[in-house]
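#structure-requests
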Amino acid sequence: MPEIIVVEGRHDYQKIKAVLPEVDILVTNGSAIEESFLQQLERLSTTHDIIVFVDADNAGERLRRIITKRIPSAKHAFIERNLSLSHNEKKVGIEHADHDTILTALQLKRSAKPGSDITKHFLLELKLIGENESRKKRLFLCEALNIGYTNGKGLYQRLALFGITQQEVKEVLDGYQSS
């Protein structure tokens, strides 16, 4: 199926077009996503793969949740926050990422799939939530799995969304070194 990449703004659009001129891109025009846009995405999702590629900030995560709720089959591409910072490090956005980072993110896109056996108890047991070092550990895990950083509640939802298993999480965390 052909793909359509969904981004937040025109600068994201321009950056991706510079990297991949042949791709189809739709722009949400910010985090105030309109119902008509969501309806358009729903129609397009019957003939296209929808790839959600939004900024690694609260507004981007809000858009990701809204689109995923309406289009569960959407694929997701992520760029680590530190790889999408402006030169003055005050802004986060796809438009600040370099070409290779964008290409890698799109190559590593993830699809929703069933099969996760993750539980909140498991996350507590592995100290991914509820501990002083949980944030660092989550960051390590999210980067290794290429699922975008999220808080504890979001981690549970994201691991379930992508069908990531307890075994996969344990294997990744075997490489974690606390500081």
